[in-house]
Amino acid sequence: MTVKIVTDTLSDITGELAMKLGITEVPLYVRFGEDVYRDRIDITSEDFYRRLINEPKLPSTTQPTPNDFAEVFKKLAKDTDEILVIVVSSKLSGTYQSATQAKDYVQGKCRIEIVDSATVALAEGLIVIAAVNAVKAGANLDKALDLARKAVSRCHIVAYFDTLKYLAKGGRIGKAKEFLGSMLSVKQLLTVKDGEMAPLTRVHSLRSGLEFLMSVPTRYPNIEGLGVEHTTNPQEGDTLAENLAKVYPKVPIYRSIISPVVGTYSGPGALALSVLEAEKK
Q1: pTM, full prediction
Q2: CB–CB of 149/17 below 8 Å?
Q3: pLDDT tens digits, residue range 228-263?
Q4: CATH 3.40.50.10170 matches 4-152
Q5: Which of 67-81, 165-179, 200-214, 241-255 has the weakest average pLDDT?
Q6: Distance from C-alpha of 225 to C-alpha of 130, rounded to nearest angstrom
Q7: 155-277 adopts what CATH topology?
Q8: Whole-angstrom Cα distance, residue 228 to residue 231?
Q9: Buried b or exposed e, range 175-209, using 16+ CB within 10 angstroms
């Protein structure tokens, strides 16, 4: 039986790509007042960002319940006895804990292994895609698990924030809080370090931010995959992806919109670039 791959919607793998690759995504939740939506299922990213900009109160977010994961595990266990779960950083969400609890609910039905990606967005997604590709090439659960764990240290994300207001209000500012006191005209670039948001550098404009993002892949000698995503600025995301494709024509570049749950904290005008380094031979 083939290993089944499960992730959460914070991996920012599009529904179309998930279907093509056979990935099962478990949604997180976003709440506007009394209205609760499953991330990417009950509300599109476009509709979410319209509400985020226009409504005075910041939405709240919640991880999947253990039962959400358990239902997925039980369904997949009908077709496989091996499931690999790769989820968002446990320092950014309780999703890992929910998946771990769900594993205990279905113990004995099949073997389930859970990996904390220690990251978020398409950085997490690139690890998931690498695991899927390994399984498609014939890897069993042990090999796919080993690959995913090793990929965690090879995956990097840099995000351009037009404002840190949403990150601070949502309590996910992490080590980047030292950037809060900077001038409003200064834009921030953050990364994920040790599983939480961390400051990287400041720039004075979107153009400078794009130039910095373009320079990020040059730090790595061999690249397995790239991910480009945006919140409310698709044109800038497309431009970044197109420019990267010219420099790295043989590297797959995945495009996505930052999910509503992550968008709650990144806010409008954000861009993110993820890089998966190739494994050293």
Answers
A1: 0.93
A2: no
A3: 999 999 999 999 999 999 999 999 999 999 999 999
A4: yes
A5: 165-179
A6: 9
A7: Hypothetical Protein Tm841; Chain: A;domain 3 (3.30.1180)
A8: 11
A9: ebeebeeeeeeebbbbbbbebbbebbeebeeeeeb
